[in-house]
Amino acid sequence: MSTTAAELIKAAEAAREDHLRHIFIRDQMAEWSKDPFIVDRAEGVFYWDADGKRYYDGISGIYVASVGHGCENVIEAIRDQLAKLSFSPVMHGSNAIAIQLANLLAELAPGDLSTVKFQCGGSEVTEAAIKLARQYHKLTGNPNKYKIISRYHSWHGSTMGSLSASGLKGRKTVNEPLAPGFVHVFPPTCYRCPFGKEHPQCDITCATLIEDVIELEDPATVAAVMVEPLGHTGGLVDPPEEYLPLLREICDRNNVLLVFDEIITGVGRTGQMFAAETFGVTPDVLCVGKGLGGGYAPLSAMICRETIAREFWGPADQNPGFVEGHTFEGNPISCAAGIAVLQEILNNDLLANSRSQGARLRAGFEALAGKYDVVGDVRGKGLFQAVEFVADRRTKQRLPDAFGVRVGKRALELGLLCRFDPHWIAFGPPLISTGDEIDAMVAILDAAIGDILSR
After folding, report:
1. In percent, how much of the chain has pLDDT > 70?
2. What is the dihedral of CA 185, 191, 196, 197, to 10 degrees?
3. Could you please report the per-residue DSSP string of 74-108?
4. Could you report how far apart the first and last alpha carbons of the chain are, in Å?
5. What does the domain layout of the chain look like in residue ranges?
6. d(Cα 348, Cα 352) in Å, to the nearest integer?
7. In sequence order, what are the residues at sequence separation of 6 or more whose Cβ sits closer than 8 angstroms to the Cβ of residue 97?
């Protein structure tokens, strides 16, 4: 009996699903395997899937491809380093290329942020920052200062410490109980103020409350406040201008370290090399990742102030140094990629491009707000911006049926990758994006919103 075309298609689909059973991804595998998105190659600001379809990369992979895909200068730097040294003995010391990158970051970082710990991913360096804060206070005669204050709706990583600092119930609950010593406060979400207030008559309660929490927890037990300058997972939380300066003052008054999680916002995303510069506030510890390696090699860095690093110097029998390490820290291949990425940004003035194209993106999003009543708010900085969807602008009532997810999936069908959530859409395209490419991405989002509203 001959096999029908329908039977052949069914067999092919079954074989595909069987092959996909051997990999865990971030989504529910059973759902994803029904219509899997599998990329095959990338160049510039574009991806192509396994079927050859092209997509605008409106989110830099996941805020990673800072200098775009296929940058020959970065690839060449990696090739050269591969031929020279691909791994160094981390238990015995460091390597020349890691030291070179550390010095470059010390030169670029604001204030006296000047001492670097390299890791592979964002979770590892936010975890390292937690350990640094606790060890620093032990070394300086305050061994009871161990608590970390962070925010609800935040995302600091997947390792147990960074996850404990995070404030997303969907990612925390399945892993609970988490590590002790973490206290959460409400984020500075002006558009949906958790205190029912309006800026600027609010007295910046979202910041001043943190000092109340420190006092109630006992300042002698609080080691650090950890925040994302621009919070991502809460729908891109852009704080009022007074917020971060107030946090700086509060931390100084209470001998508490201020930690900036700039895994996303670092390396030009907000229009300056670091969001700390965009907001004019220097933290005690700054964590950067994602765009630092540009997607060419896993790389992240924790950068701390000189005064903090100095406390970890001393006789080995009295001071163990910073007790933290991973096998691939300071990997020569990754550090070569990091130097090449930073050189691309500096040599091509991509910070200025981030600012100018960010202004163009903002104008595009505001035009969508003028066209569609469902766009309730536009927020963000540089090439890191978002729109929030609402059913009613006056009441800010949410739209039903995960409207943002539906829009995001339709945008994907139309050839655009963006970050979508039930209630918001975010863009974070590569820093090399041109005006025409920004316009094209916004046009696809425009079409996607229109298509979903017409259904």
Report:
1. 93
2. 100
3. HHHHHHHHHHH-S---TTT---HHHHHHHHHHHHH
4. 44
5. 37-70+349-453, 72-347
6. 9
7. 81, 85, 332, 335, 336, 339
pLDDT per residue as tens digits for the range 388-400 = 999 999 999 999 9
Query: b/e per residue, 114-132, with b = 16+ CB within 10 A?
Result: bbbbbbbbbbbbbbbbbbb
d(CA 136, CA 174): 32
Evaluate whether 37-70+349-453 and 72-347 have a shared fold.
no
Q: State CA 398 to chain mean position distance.
A: 25
- Ramachandran quadrant class, 71 (left: phi over 0; alpha: psi -120 to 50; beta: rest): beta
The pLDDT tens digits for 288-309 are 999 999 999 999 999 999 999 9
Model confidence, pTM: 0.93
Q: Quick one: how far is CA 37 from the chain centroid?
A: 22
Please tell me the distance from the alpha carbon of residue 341 to that of residue 338, in angstroms, as a whole number.
Answer: 5
Q: Residue 148 carries which side chain, given as an amino acid letter?
A: I
12 pLDDT higher than 90: no
CATH architecture of 72-347: 3-Layer(aba) Sandwich (3.40)
For residues 401 and 323, the answer to whether their CB atoms sit within 8 Å is no
Helix (H) or strand (E) holding 135: helix 122-139
Rounded to an integer, what distance in angstroms lies between the CA atom of residue 59 and that of residue 327?
A: 29
Q: DSSP string spanning 200-248? A: TTTTTHHHHHHHHHHHHH-GGGEEEEEE-SSBSTTT-B---TTHHHHHH
Beta bridge mates, 426: 386, 419
Euclidean distance between CA atoms 324 and 342, whole angstroms: 26
* Residue pLDDT, tens place only, 30-83: 676 667 788 899 999 999 998 899 999 999 999 999 999 999 999 999 999 999
Between CA 410 and CA 415 the distance in angstroms is: 9
What architecture does CATH give domain 37-70+349-453?
Alpha-Beta Complex (3.90)
8 Å CB contact between 411 and 387: no
